[in-house]
Records
---
Amino acid sequence: MSTGETHIGEMEIVRYAVNTSFESIDKAVRSLDMEAFVKASTLPAAKDRLIRLLVIFDSIRPLLRALASVPLLPEQWRKALQLLIAVLDELSASTPKPFFKAGKDL
Protein backbone atom coordinates (compact mmCIF):
# COMPACT_ATOMS: atom_id res chain seq x y z
CA MET A 1 0.00 0.00 0.00
CA SER A 2 1.30 3.46 -0.89
CA THR A 3 2.11 5.88 1.89
CA GLY A 4 2.54 8.86 -0.45
CA GLU A 5 1.02 12.21 0.42
CA THR A 6 -1.93 11.64 -1.93
CA HIS A 7 -2.81 8.34 -0.30
CA ILE A 8 -2.47 9.76 3.21
CA GLY A 9 -4.62 12.75 2.23
CA GLU A 10 -7.30 10.45 0.81
CA MET A 11 -7.29 8.32 3.96
CA GLU A 12 -7.69 11.45 6.12
CA ILE A 13 -10.73 12.50 4.10
CA VAL A 14 -12.31 9.05 4.35
CA ARG A 15 -11.64 9.00 8.10
CA TYR A 16 -13.20 12.47 8.44
CA ALA A 17 -16.30 11.46 6.48
CA VAL A 18 -16.81 8.35 8.61
CA ASN A 19 -16.45 10.31 11.87
CA THR A 20 -18.71 13.19 10.81
CA SER A 21 -22.40 12.92 11.43
CA PHE A 22 -25.31 14.83 10.01
CA GLU A 23 -25.89 16.27 13.47
CA SER A 24 -22.36 17.67 13.80
CA ILE A 25 -22.48 19.23 10.31
CA ASP A 26 -25.93 20.67 10.97
CA LYS A 27 -24.79 22.12 14.30
CA ALA A 28 -21.80 23.82 12.66
CA VAL A 29 -23.91 25.30 9.85
CA ARG A 30 -26.61 26.47 12.28
CA SER A 31 -23.96 28.21 14.41
CA LEU A 32 -23.56 30.78 11.62
CA ASP A 33 -25.83 33.81 12.02
CA MET A 34 -26.69 34.07 8.33
CA GLU A 35 -29.37 36.71 8.86
CA ALA A 36 -26.80 39.11 10.29
CA PHE A 37 -24.59 38.66 7.24
CA VAL A 38 -27.51 39.22 4.88
CA LYS A 39 -28.74 42.28 6.79
CA ALA A 40 -25.35 43.98 6.69
CA SER A 41 -26.16 46.60 4.07
CA THR A 42 -22.79 48.30 3.69
CA LEU A 43 -19.77 46.78 2.06
CA PRO A 44 -17.25 46.12 4.84
CA ALA A 45 -13.63 47.18 4.65
CA ALA A 46 -11.24 44.74 3.00
CA LYS A 47 -9.90 43.38 6.31
CA ASP A 48 -13.46 42.83 7.53
CA ARG A 49 -14.36 40.98 4.33
CA LEU A 50 -11.57 38.51 5.03
CA ILE A 51 -12.77 37.99 8.59
CA ARG A 52 -16.35 37.48 7.33
CA LEU A 53 -15.10 34.88 4.85
CA LEU A 54 -13.21 33.02 7.55
CA VAL A 55 -16.16 33.12 9.98
CA ILE A 56 -18.42 31.64 7.30
CA PHE A 57 -15.79 29.08 6.26
CA ASP A 58 -15.33 27.97 9.86
CA SER A 59 -19.06 27.21 10.09
CA ILE A 60 -19.39 25.38 6.78
CA ARG A 61 -16.02 23.61 6.83
CA PRO A 62 -17.53 20.30 8.07
CA LEU A 63 -20.07 20.43 5.24
CA LEU A 64 -17.36 21.12 2.65
CA ARG A 65 -15.20 18.29 4.03
CA ALA A 66 -18.14 15.88 3.83
CA LEU A 67 -18.93 16.94 0.26
CA ALA A 68 -15.29 16.52 -0.71
CA SER A 69 -15.50 12.87 0.24
CA VAL A 70 -18.74 11.95 -1.55
CA PRO A 71 -17.90 9.34 -4.20
CA LEU A 72 -20.87 10.43 -6.33
CA LEU A 73 -19.01 13.65 -7.19
CA PRO A 74 -16.41 13.35 -9.93
CA GLU A 75 -12.89 12.92 -8.58
CA GLN A 76 -11.76 16.25 -10.05
CA TRP A 77 -14.59 18.08 -8.22
CA ARG A 78 -13.63 16.41 -4.94
CA LYS A 79 -10.00 17.39 -5.46
CA ALA A 80 -11.03 20.98 -6.21
CA LEU A 81 -13.05 21.10 -2.97
CA GLN A 82 -10.12 19.61 -1.05
CA LEU A 83 -7.83 22.26 -2.51
CA LEU A 84 -10.24 25.05 -1.59
CA ILE A 85 -10.47 23.73 1.97
CA ALA A 86 -6.69 23.48 2.26
CA VAL A 87 -6.15 27.03 1.00
CA LEU A 88 -8.82 28.45 3.31
CA ASP A 89 -7.32 26.46 6.22
CA GLU A 90 -3.93 28.04 5.50
CA LEU A 91 -5.49 31.49 5.28
CA SER A 92 -7.42 30.92 8.48
CA ALA A 93 -4.32 29.75 10.34
CA SER A 94 -2.31 32.78 9.24
CA THR A 95 -4.99 35.41 9.92
CA PRO A 96 -5.55 36.80 13.40
CA LYS A 97 -9.22 36.60 14.23
CA PRO A 98 -10.43 39.47 16.39
CA PHE A 99 -13.81 39.08 17.97
CA PHE A 100 -16.27 39.36 15.12
CA LYS A 101 -20.03 39.28 15.15
CA ALA A 102 -21.87 39.88 11.91
CA GLY A 103 -24.07 42.95 12.04
CA LYS A 104 -22.65 44.30 15.31
CA ASP A 105 -22.08 47.73 13.73
CA LEU A 106 -25.63 48.04 12.42
---
Amino acid sequence: MPLLEIVQIRRVTASIRLEESTAALIDQYAAFLHASADEVVDKALSYVFAKDRDFQDFLRSPEAAQVPASLRIRMVPQNNGAAEPANGAGKSAKLGGGRQ
Protein backbone atom coordinates (compact mmCIF):
# COMPACT_ATOMS: atom_id res chain seq x y z
CA MET A 1 0.00 0.00 0.00
CA PRO A 2 1.43 3.43 -0.92
CA LEU A 3 2.41 5.79 1.87
CA LEU A 4 0.96 8.79 0.04
CA GLU A 5 -2.42 9.23 -1.55
CA ILE A 6 -2.51 11.83 -4.30
CA VAL A 7 -5.92 13.32 -4.97
CA GLN A 8 -6.18 15.31 -8.17
CA ILE A 9 -8.56 18.25 -7.90
CA ARG A 10 -10.17 19.53 -11.06
CA ARG A 11 -9.96 23.32 -11.13
CA VAL A 12 -11.68 25.71 -13.50
CA THR A 13 -11.11 29.33 -14.37
CA ALA A 14 -14.10 31.57 -13.84
CA SER A 15 -14.68 35.26 -14.39
CA ILE A 16 -16.45 37.25 -11.68
CA ARG A 17 -16.98 40.94 -10.91
CA LEU A 18 -16.23 42.26 -7.44
CA GLU A 19 -16.47 45.59 -5.73
CA GLU A 20 -13.06 47.23 -5.85
CA SER A 21 -12.83 47.27 -2.05
CA THR A 22 -13.57 43.52 -1.90
CA ALA A 23 -10.85 42.79 -4.47
CA ALA A 24 -8.38 44.84 -2.42
CA LEU A 25 -9.31 42.92 0.73
CA ILE A 26 -8.83 39.60 -1.09
CA ASP A 27 -5.32 40.70 -2.05
CA GLN A 28 -4.64 41.80 1.53
CA TYR A 29 -5.95 38.54 2.98
CA ALA A 30 -3.92 36.53 0.48
CA ALA A 31 -0.78 38.40 1.54
CA PHE A 32 -1.67 37.84 5.20
CA LEU A 33 -2.01 34.08 4.59
CA HIS A 34 0.93 33.86 2.15
CA ALA A 35 -1.53 32.35 -0.33
CA SER A 36 -2.91 33.22 -3.74
CA ALA A 37 -6.04 35.27 -4.26
CA ASP A 38 -7.54 32.21 -5.99
CA GLU A 39 -7.03 30.14 -2.84
CA VAL A 40 -8.59 32.83 -0.64
CA VAL A 41 -11.72 33.08 -2.79
CA ASP A 42 -12.05 29.29 -3.15
CA LYS A 43 -11.64 28.59 0.57
CA ALA A 44 -13.83 31.51 1.66
CA LEU A 45 -16.70 30.40 -0.56
CA SER A 46 -16.29 26.75 0.47
CA TYR A 47 -16.43 27.85 4.11
CA VAL A 48 -19.59 29.91 3.61
CA PHE A 49 -21.31 27.14 1.64
CA ALA A 50 -20.50 24.55 4.32
CA LYS A 51 -21.57 26.74 7.25
CA ASP A 52 -24.85 28.06 5.79
CA ARG A 53 -27.47 25.56 6.99
CA ASP A 54 -30.27 27.10 4.93
CA PHE A 55 -28.09 26.73 1.82
CA GLN A 56 -27.35 23.10 2.71
CA ASP A 57 -31.10 22.48 2.97
CA PHE A 58 -31.58 24.16 -0.41
CA LEU A 59 -28.92 21.90 -1.98
CA ARG A 60 -30.96 18.86 -0.94
CA SER A 61 -34.13 20.26 -2.55
CA PRO A 62 -35.39 19.48 -6.07
CA GLU A 63 -35.15 23.19 -6.86
CA ALA A 64 -31.33 23.08 -6.55
CA ALA A 65 -31.07 20.60 -9.42
CA GLN A 66 -32.81 23.06 -11.74
CA VAL A 67 -30.64 26.13 -11.16
CA PRO A 68 -29.22 27.44 -14.46
CA ALA A 69 -25.46 27.99 -14.58
CA SER A 70 -24.60 31.70 -14.40
CA LEU A 71 -20.88 31.60 -13.58
CA ARG A 72 -18.75 32.48 -16.60
CA ILE A 73 -16.44 29.47 -17.03
CA ARG A 74 -13.53 29.71 -19.46
CA MET A 75 -13.57 26.99 -22.12
CA VAL A 76 -10.65 24.58 -21.90
CA PRO A 77 -9.57 21.92 -24.42
CA GLN A 78 -10.17 18.31 -23.39
CA ASN A 79 -7.70 15.47 -24.02
CA ASN A 80 -9.09 14.91 -27.52
CA GLY A 81 -8.63 18.60 -28.39
CA ALA A 82 -12.34 19.53 -28.45
CA ALA A 83 -13.23 22.56 -26.34
CA GLU A 84 -15.85 21.91 -23.69
CA PRO A 85 -17.04 23.96 -20.73
CA ALA A 86 -14.66 23.52 -17.84
CA ASN A 87 -17.61 23.12 -15.49
CA GLY A 88 -18.82 19.89 -17.10
CA ALA A 89 -21.65 21.46 -19.11
CA GLY A 90 -23.93 22.59 -16.35
CA LYS A 91 -22.49 20.77 -13.36
CA SER A 92 -21.53 22.91 -10.39
CA ALA A 93 -18.01 24.30 -10.52
CA LYS A 94 -15.51 25.64 -8.00
CA LEU A 95 -14.60 29.21 -8.28
CA GLY A 96 -11.00 29.50 -9.34
CA GLY A 97 -10.65 32.91 -10.90
CA GLY A 98 -8.70 35.75 -9.43
CA ARG A 99 -8.53 39.46 -10.10
CA GLN A 100 -6.85 40.38 -13.35
---
Amino acid sequence: MSVAPVSLPRLGVAGRKALTQQKILRASMELFATRGYHRTSTSQIAARAGVSRASIFWHFSDKATLFGETCRHFLVPFRESLARGRGHGDPRERIVRQIDAYESFVREQRATIRAFVSWIFASQPHALSLRDELLALHREFQSGLARDLAALLADPSEAPALAAMTVAVLHGELLITLGREAPHATSPRAALERLLFERIAPRASNTKE
Protein backbone atom coordinates (compact mmCIF):
# COMPACT_ATOMS: atom_id res chain seq x y z
CA MET A 1 0.00 0.00 0.00
CA SER A 2 1.43 3.40 -0.96
CA VAL A 3 0.53 6.30 1.32
CA ALA A 4 1.79 9.77 0.42
CA PRO A 5 3.86 11.17 3.29
CA VAL A 6 2.94 14.39 5.02
CA SER A 7 5.64 16.92 4.13
CA LEU A 8 4.61 19.99 6.11
CA PRO A 9 7.49 21.69 7.97
CA ARG A 10 5.39 22.14 11.10
CA LEU A 11 2.41 19.91 11.74
CA GLY A 12 -0.58 21.12 13.66
CA VAL A 13 -2.97 18.83 15.51
CA ALA A 14 -4.69 17.72 12.29
CA GLY A 15 -1.34 17.16 10.58
CA ARG A 16 0.02 15.04 13.44
CA LYS A 17 -3.18 13.02 13.47
CA ALA A 18 -2.95 12.37 9.71
CA LEU A 19 0.71 11.39 9.98
CA THR A 20 0.02 8.95 12.81
CA GLN A 21 -2.87 7.39 10.93
CA GLN A 22 -0.70 6.97 7.84
CA LYS A 23 1.97 5.21 9.88
CA ILE A 24 -0.59 2.87 11.42
CA LEU A 25 -2.30 2.10 8.09
CA ARG A 26 1.02 1.43 6.36
CA ALA A 27 2.12 -0.94 9.12
CA SER A 28 -1.28 -2.64 9.15
CA MET A 29 -1.21 -3.25 5.41
CA GLU A 30 2.25 -4.81 5.57
CA LEU A 31 1.39 -7.09 8.49
CA PHE A 32 -2.13 -8.09 7.43
CA ALA A 33 -0.84 -8.97 3.95
CA THR A 34 2.09 -11.07 5.18
CA ARG A 35 0.79 -12.56 8.44
CA GLY A 36 -2.98 -12.57 8.00
CA TYR A 37 -5.62 -11.07 10.25
CA HIS A 38 -5.55 -13.51 13.17
CA ARG A 39 -1.75 -13.73 13.37
CA THR A 40 -1.38 -9.95 13.42
CA SER A 41 -1.77 -8.26 16.79
CA THR A 42 -2.30 -4.61 17.56
CA SER A 43 0.97 -4.72 19.53
CA GLN A 44 2.83 -5.82 16.38
CA ILE A 45 1.17 -3.08 14.35
CA ALA A 46 2.09 -0.48 16.96
CA ALA A 47 5.71 -1.65 17.01
CA ARG A 48 5.94 -1.58 13.21
CA ALA A 49 4.35 1.87 13.04
CA GLY A 50 6.44 3.29 15.86
CA VAL A 51 3.42 4.34 17.92
CA SER A 52 1.86 3.20 21.15
CA ARG A 53 -0.82 0.50 21.23
CA ALA A 54 -3.14 3.04 22.85
CA SER A 55 -2.68 5.26 19.81
CA ILE A 56 -4.14 2.55 17.58
CA PHE A 57 -7.28 2.33 19.70
CA TRP A 58 -7.53 6.12 19.88
CA HIS A 59 -7.54 6.43 16.07
CA PHE A 60 -9.33 3.22 15.02
CA SER A 61 -11.29 1.92 18.07
CA ASP A 62 -10.42 -1.76 17.57
CA LYS A 63 -8.60 -4.21 15.32
CA ALA A 64 -11.63 -4.96 13.14
CA THR A 65 -12.21 -1.26 12.48
CA LEU A 66 -8.54 -0.85 11.64
CA PHE A 67 -8.72 -3.74 9.19
CA GLY A 68 -11.72 -2.23 7.41
CA GLU A 69 -10.05 1.17 7.16
CA THR A 70 -6.85 -0.45 5.90
CA CYS A 71 -8.83 -2.17 3.14
CA ARG A 72 -10.46 1.10 2.10
CA HIS A 73 -7.14 2.91 1.96
CA PHE A 74 -5.57 0.07 0.00
CA LEU A 75 -8.08 0.66 -2.81
CA VAL A 76 -7.79 4.46 -2.86
CA PRO A 77 -4.98 4.58 -5.48
CA PHE A 78 -7.04 2.45 -7.88
CA ARG A 79 -10.13 4.61 -7.40
CA GLU A 80 -8.05 7.72 -8.02
CA SER A 81 -6.53 6.20 -11.19
CA LEU A 82 -9.99 5.34 -12.49
CA ALA A 83 -11.19 8.88 -11.81
CA ARG A 84 -8.21 10.32 -13.70
CA GLY A 85 -8.81 7.92 -16.58
CA ARG A 86 -12.43 9.01 -16.90
CA GLY A 87 -11.64 12.69 -16.58
CA HIS A 88 -10.87 13.63 -20.17
CA GLY A 89 -10.49 12.37 -23.73
CA ASP A 90 -12.86 10.55 -26.05
CA PRO A 91 -14.69 7.35 -24.98
CA ARG A 92 -12.10 5.05 -26.55
CA GLU A 93 -9.24 6.81 -24.74
CA ARG A 94 -11.11 6.67 -21.44
CA ILE A 95 -11.72 2.93 -21.82
CA VAL A 96 -8.03 2.28 -22.51
CA ARG A 97 -6.97 4.36 -19.50
CA GLN A 98 -9.40 2.55 -17.19
CA ILE A 99 -8.05 -0.83 -18.30
CA ASP A 100 -4.52 0.53 -17.87
CA ALA A 101 -5.39 1.58 -14.31
CA TYR A 102 -6.71 -1.91 -13.53
CA GLU A 103 -3.65 -3.69 -14.90
CA SER A 104 -1.19 -1.29 -13.24
CA PHE A 105 -2.83 -1.70 -9.84
CA VAL A 106 -2.85 -5.51 -10.15
CA ARG A 107 0.78 -5.55 -11.24
CA GLU A 108 1.95 -3.30 -8.38
CA GLN A 109 -0.18 -4.84 -5.62
CA ARG A 110 -0.20 -8.50 -6.68
CA ALA A 111 1.02 -9.97 -3.39
CA THR A 112 -1.44 -8.00 -1.26
CA ILE A 113 -4.34 -8.74 -3.59
CA ARG A 114 -3.50 -12.46 -3.40
CA ALA A 115 -3.62 -12.37 0.40
CA PHE A 116 -6.89 -10.45 0.54
CA VAL A 117 -8.62 -12.61 -2.09
CA SER A 118 -7.68 -15.75 -0.17
CA TRP A 119 -9.34 -14.32 2.96
CA ILE A 120 -12.54 -13.60 1.05
CA PHE A 121 -12.68 -17.14 -0.36
CA ALA A 122 -12.10 -18.50 3.14
CA SER A 123 -15.24 -16.56 4.24
CA GLN A 124 -13.57 -15.16 7.34
CA PRO A 125 -15.99 -12.81 9.12
CA HIS A 126 -13.51 -9.93 9.26
CA ALA A 127 -13.12 -10.10 5.46
CA LEU A 128 -16.72 -8.95 4.88
CA SER A 129 -15.65 -5.32 4.91
CA LEU A 130 -13.06 -6.05 2.25
CA ARG A 131 -15.56 -8.00 0.17
CA ASP A 132 -18.03 -5.12 0.29
CA GLU A 133 -15.31 -2.64 -0.71
CA LEU A 134 -14.24 -4.81 -3.65
CA LEU A 135 -17.81 -5.32 -4.84
CA ALA A 136 -18.46 -1.57 -4.73
CA LEU A 137 -15.27 -0.93 -6.68
CA HIS A 138 -16.23 -3.64 -9.18
CA ARG A 139 -19.57 -1.92 -9.81
CA GLU A 140 -17.88 1.47 -10.14
CA PHE A 141 -15.33 0.13 -12.65
CA GLN A 142 -17.94 -1.72 -14.70
CA SER A 143 -20.40 1.18 -14.81
CA GLY A 144 -17.64 3.55 -15.96
CA LEU A 145 -16.76 1.25 -18.83
CA ALA A 146 -20.45 0.87 -19.73
CA ARG A 147 -20.94 4.63 -19.98
CA ASP A 148 -18.03 5.01 -22.40
CA LEU A 149 -18.99 1.94 -24.42
CA ALA A 150 -22.53 3.29 -24.78
CA ALA A 151 -21.07 6.31 -26.57
CA LEU A 152 -19.40 4.02 -29.13
CA LEU A 153 -22.20 1.57 -29.84
CA ALA A 154 -25.06 1.93 -32.28
CA ASP A 155 -27.25 0.29 -29.65
CA PRO A 156 -26.25 1.71 -26.23
CA SER A 157 -28.33 -0.98 -24.51
CA GLU A 158 -25.54 -3.46 -25.37
CA ALA A 159 -23.00 -1.50 -23.33
CA PRO A 160 -23.69 -3.05 -19.88
CA ALA A 161 -23.24 -6.59 -21.20
CA LEU A 162 -20.07 -5.66 -23.06
CA ALA A 163 -18.68 -3.89 -19.98
CA ALA A 164 -19.49 -6.96 -17.87
CA MET A 165 -17.65 -9.17 -20.37
CA THR A 166 -14.61 -6.87 -20.31
CA VAL A 167 -14.45 -6.88 -16.51
CA ALA A 168 -14.97 -10.67 -16.41
CA VAL A 169 -11.98 -11.18 -18.71
CA LEU A 170 -9.80 -8.94 -16.55
CA HIS A 171 -10.95 -10.57 -13.30
CA GLY A 172 -10.43 -14.03 -14.78
CA GLU A 173 -6.89 -13.20 -15.80
CA LEU A 174 -6.29 -11.75 -12.33
CA LEU A 175 -7.38 -14.96 -10.59
CA ILE A 176 -5.26 -17.09 -12.93
CA THR A 177 -2.26 -14.85 -12.35
CA LEU A 178 -2.69 -14.99 -8.57
CA GLY A 179 -2.37 -18.76 -8.76
CA ARG A 180 1.11 -18.52 -10.26
CA GLU A 181 4.37 -17.80 -8.50
CA ALA A 182 5.14 -15.04 -11.01
CA PRO A 183 2.99 -13.04 -13.44
CA HIS A 184 2.42 -14.71 -16.79
CA ALA A 185 4.22 -13.25 -19.80
CA THR A 186 1.08 -13.12 -21.94
CA SER A 187 -2.14 -11.19 -21.38
CA PRO A 188 -5.59 -11.17 -22.99
CA ARG A 189 -5.32 -7.38 -23.30
CA ALA A 190 -4.55 -7.28 -27.04
CA ALA A 191 -7.40 -9.66 -27.92
CA LEU A 192 -9.77 -7.74 -25.65
CA GLU A 193 -8.98 -4.42 -27.34
CA ARG A 194 -9.38 -5.97 -30.78
CA LEU A 195 -12.81 -7.19 -29.77
CA LEU A 196 -13.81 -3.82 -28.38
CA PHE A 197 -12.38 -1.51 -31.01
CA GLU A 198 -11.66 -3.35 -34.26
CA ARG A 199 -14.95 -5.20 -34.38
CA ILE A 200 -17.59 -3.69 -32.16
CA ALA A 201 -16.79 0.04 -32.28
CA PRO A 202 -16.16 0.24 -36.06
CA ARG A 203 -19.27 -1.82 -36.75
CA ALA A 204 -21.27 0.54 -34.54
CA SER A 205 -19.86 3.54 -36.39
CA ASN A 206 -20.80 2.03 -39.75
CA THR A 207 -24.30 1.32 -38.52
CA LYS A 208 -24.77 4.93 -37.44
CA GLU A 209 -23.75 6.12 -40.88
---
Amino acid sequence: MRKTSVRPAPREATRHEPKTPVPEAFGADAPPPSSSSGSVKRGALDSLVQGSLVELFQAYSVALAPQPRTSRDPLPKLPEICAWIGFTHGTQKRVGRLTLSLSAAVVGLMKVDLGGNRQVDWARELCNQLMGRIKNRMLQFNVRLQAGLPSSIDAKLLEEQLRNAPTTRSYLGRTLRGDVVVTLDGLPHEAELVYVGPTTVANEGEAIFF
Protein backbone atom coordinates (compact mmCIF):
# COMPACT_ATOMS: atom_id res chain seq x y z
CA MET A 1 0.00 0.00 0.00
CA ARG A 2 1.22 3.40 -0.84
CA LYS A 3 1.96 5.69 2.11
CA THR A 4 0.45 9.11 1.95
CA SER A 5 2.77 11.85 3.11
CA VAL A 6 1.22 14.61 5.15
CA ARG A 7 2.66 18.02 4.68
CA PRO A 8 2.81 20.21 7.78
CA ALA A 9 0.53 23.21 7.71
CA PRO A 10 2.32 26.41 6.79
CA ARG A 11 3.42 28.48 9.78
CA GLU A 12 1.68 31.70 10.49
CA ALA A 13 3.83 34.79 10.37
CA THR A 14 5.19 35.66 13.76
CA ARG A 15 3.77 38.82 15.20
CA HIS A 16 6.31 41.13 16.75
CA GLU A 17 4.70 42.73 19.78
CA PRO A 18 6.12 46.04 20.92
CA LYS A 19 8.64 45.67 23.71
CA THR A 20 7.03 48.42 25.74
CA PRO A 21 3.23 48.55 25.38
CA VAL A 22 1.62 51.90 25.99
CA PRO A 23 -0.79 51.62 28.94
CA GLU A 24 -3.73 53.98 29.25
CA ALA A 25 -2.59 55.15 32.68
CA PHE A 26 0.55 53.51 33.98
CA GLY A 27 1.32 53.25 37.66
CA ALA A 28 4.46 52.80 39.69
CA ASP A 29 5.13 49.28 38.35
CA ALA A 30 4.20 49.73 34.68
CA PRO A 31 6.81 50.98 32.21
CA PRO A 32 6.08 54.24 30.40
CA PRO A 33 5.99 54.50 26.62
CA SER A 34 9.59 54.74 25.43
CA SER A 35 11.67 54.61 22.28
CA SER A 36 14.32 52.04 21.40
CA SER A 37 16.97 54.37 22.81
CA GLY A 38 15.31 54.33 26.23
CA SER A 39 14.15 57.94 26.11
CA VAL A 40 10.56 58.61 27.12
CA LYS A 41 8.02 59.39 24.43
CA ARG A 42 5.87 62.49 24.38
CA GLY A 43 2.72 62.07 26.44
CA ALA A 44 4.28 59.86 29.12
CA LEU A 45 4.04 62.57 31.79
CA ASP A 46 0.41 63.22 30.90
CA SER A 47 -0.35 59.52 31.39
CA LEU A 48 1.54 59.52 34.67
CA VAL A 49 -0.38 62.50 36.08
CA GLN A 50 -3.77 61.34 34.84
CA GLY A 51 -3.16 57.82 36.14
CA SER A 52 -2.21 59.20 39.55
CA LEU A 53 -5.36 61.34 39.64
CA VAL A 54 -7.65 58.44 38.69
CA GLU A 55 -6.10 56.15 41.31
CA LEU A 56 -6.36 58.82 43.99
CA PHE A 57 -10.11 59.23 43.49
CA GLN A 58 -10.62 55.47 43.16
CA ALA A 59 -9.14 55.14 46.64
CA TYR A 60 -12.14 57.12 47.91
CA SER A 61 -14.74 55.29 45.77
CA VAL A 62 -15.13 58.09 43.22
CA ALA A 63 -15.05 57.30 39.50
CA LEU A 64 -13.12 59.96 37.58
CA ALA A 65 -12.74 60.09 33.80
CA PRO A 66 -9.64 62.01 32.62
CA GLN A 67 -10.21 64.10 29.52
CA PRO A 68 -7.75 64.14 26.60
CA ARG A 69 -5.21 66.94 26.90
CA THR A 70 -3.80 68.99 24.04
CA SER A 71 -1.31 71.84 24.13
CA ARG A 72 -3.94 74.18 22.69
CA ASP A 73 -6.57 73.57 25.36
CA PRO A 74 -7.56 76.72 27.27
CA LEU A 75 -7.41 76.64 31.05
CA PRO A 76 -10.65 75.08 32.36
CA LYS A 77 -12.75 77.12 34.75
CA LEU A 78 -11.61 76.29 38.26
CA PRO A 79 -14.03 74.93 40.87
CA GLU A 80 -14.33 76.87 44.11
CA ILE A 81 -12.06 74.80 46.41
CA CYS A 82 -8.36 75.03 45.45
CA ALA A 83 -5.11 73.85 46.99
CA TRP A 84 -1.49 73.86 45.89
CA ILE A 85 1.84 72.36 46.86
CA GLY A 86 5.33 73.35 45.79
CA PHE A 87 8.24 71.05 45.03
CA THR A 88 11.87 71.10 43.93
CA HIS A 89 14.03 68.59 42.07
CA GLY A 90 17.51 68.16 40.67
CA THR A 91 20.87 69.41 41.82
CA GLN A 92 19.88 72.94 40.78
CA LYS A 93 16.69 72.73 42.87
CA ARG A 94 14.33 73.51 40.03
CA VAL A 95 11.01 74.76 41.40
CA GLY A 96 7.56 73.49 40.48
CA ARG A 97 3.96 73.64 41.66
CA LEU A 98 0.98 71.27 41.64
CA THR A 99 -2.58 72.56 42.11
CA LEU A 100 -5.85 70.71 42.66
CA SER A 101 -9.31 72.29 42.31
CA LEU A 102 -12.65 70.64 42.99
CA SER A 103 -16.16 71.55 44.08
CA ALA A 104 -17.95 70.90 47.36
CA ALA A 105 -20.24 68.50 45.48
CA VAL A 106 -17.26 66.37 44.41
CA VAL A 107 -15.92 66.36 47.98
CA GLY A 108 -19.34 65.08 49.05
CA LEU A 109 -18.90 61.98 46.87
CA MET A 110 -15.89 60.80 48.85
CA LYS A 111 -16.30 58.15 51.51
CA VAL A 112 -14.68 60.16 54.28
CA ASP A 113 -15.94 61.63 57.53
CA LEU A 114 -14.79 65.24 57.53
CA GLY A 115 -16.37 65.97 60.90
CA GLY A 116 -17.86 69.32 59.97
CA ASN A 117 -16.93 72.01 57.47
CA ARG A 118 -13.39 70.86 56.67
CA GLN A 119 -13.62 70.72 52.90
CA VAL A 120 -10.69 73.12 52.46
CA ASP A 121 -8.55 70.97 54.75
CA TRP A 122 -9.53 67.91 52.75
CA ALA A 123 -8.61 69.59 49.45
CA ARG A 124 -5.14 70.28 50.86
CA GLU A 125 -4.82 66.65 51.92
CA LEU A 126 -5.91 65.41 48.48
CA CYS A 127 -3.36 67.70 46.85
CA ASN A 128 -0.69 66.30 49.18
CA GLN A 129 -1.66 62.70 48.35
CA LEU A 130 -1.66 63.42 44.61
CA MET A 131 1.81 64.90 44.97
CA GLY A 132 2.91 61.73 46.76
CA ARG A 133 1.63 59.51 43.95
CA ILE A 134 3.35 61.60 41.26
CA LYS A 135 6.53 61.71 43.33
CA ASN A 136 6.58 57.90 43.63
CA ARG A 137 6.06 57.41 39.90
CA MET A 138 8.78 59.88 38.96
CA LEU A 139 11.31 57.60 40.68
CA GLN A 140 11.17 55.27 37.66
CA PHE A 141 12.90 58.11 35.77
CA ASN A 142 15.38 58.64 38.62
CA VAL A 143 13.75 62.02 39.34
CA ARG A 144 13.39 62.74 43.06
CA LEU A 145 10.87 65.40 43.95
CA GLN A 146 11.09 67.21 47.29
CA ALA A 147 7.63 68.45 48.22
CA GLY A 148 6.65 71.16 50.66
CA LEU A 149 3.42 71.52 52.62
CA PRO A 150 0.05 72.00 50.88
CA SER A 151 -1.77 75.33 51.16
CA SER A 152 -5.15 76.73 50.18
CA ILE A 153 -5.61 79.41 47.54
CA ASP A 154 -8.54 81.45 46.28
CA ALA A 155 -9.87 80.20 42.93
CA LYS A 156 -9.86 83.65 41.29
CA LEU A 157 -6.30 84.35 42.42
CA LEU A 158 -5.16 80.96 41.13
CA GLU A 159 -6.83 81.56 37.76
CA GLU A 160 -5.01 84.89 37.46
CA GLN A 161 -1.67 83.27 38.28
CA LEU A 162 -2.22 80.45 35.78
CA ARG A 163 -3.09 82.87 32.97
CA ASN A 164 0.43 84.28 33.39
CA ALA A 165 2.04 80.83 33.28
CA PRO A 166 1.72 79.61 29.67
CA THR A 167 3.94 76.54 30.19
CA THR A 168 1.71 75.08 32.92
CA ARG A 169 0.08 71.74 32.09
CA SER A 170 -3.64 71.52 32.92
CA TYR A 171 -5.65 68.32 33.36
CA LEU A 172 -9.41 67.91 33.56
CA GLY A 173 -11.21 64.95 35.15
CA ARG A 174 -14.97 64.46 35.19
CA THR A 175 -17.05 62.93 37.99
CA LEU A 176 -20.80 62.53 38.46
CA ARG A 177 -20.90 65.71 40.56
CA GLY A 178 -18.53 67.98 38.68
CA ASP A 179 -15.05 68.50 37.31
CA VAL A 180 -11.65 68.21 38.95
CA VAL A 181 -8.86 70.40 37.59
CA VAL A 182 -5.16 69.74 38.15
CA THR A 183 -2.34 71.99 36.98
CA LEU A 184 1.34 71.17 37.07
CA ASP A 185 4.43 73.20 36.34
CA GLY A 186 8.13 72.49 36.83
CA LEU A 187 8.54 68.82 35.95
CA PRO A 188 11.28 67.90 33.48
CA HIS A 189 10.29 67.59 29.84
CA GLU A 190 9.86 64.06 28.44
CA ALA A 191 12.99 64.60 26.31
CA GLU A 192 15.03 64.89 29.53
CA LEU A 193 13.76 61.62 31.01
CA VAL A 194 15.17 58.12 30.74
CA TYR A 195 13.30 55.11 32.12
CA VAL A 196 15.51 53.32 34.66
CA GLY A 197 13.08 50.63 35.80
CA PRO A 198 10.34 50.02 38.35
CA THR A 199 10.90 51.01 41.95
CA THR A 200 9.52 49.69 45.21
CA VAL A 201 7.88 52.50 47.12
CA ALA A 202 5.74 52.80 50.18
CA ASN A 203 2.02 53.45 49.94
CA GLU A 204 0.88 57.03 49.77
CA GLY A 205 -0.24 56.78 53.39
CA GLU A 206 -3.25 57.67 55.43
CA ALA A 207 -4.98 61.01 55.46
CA ILE A 208 -3.31 63.63 57.64
CA PHE A 209 -5.07 66.98 57.93
CA PHE A 210 -2.92 70.12 57.87
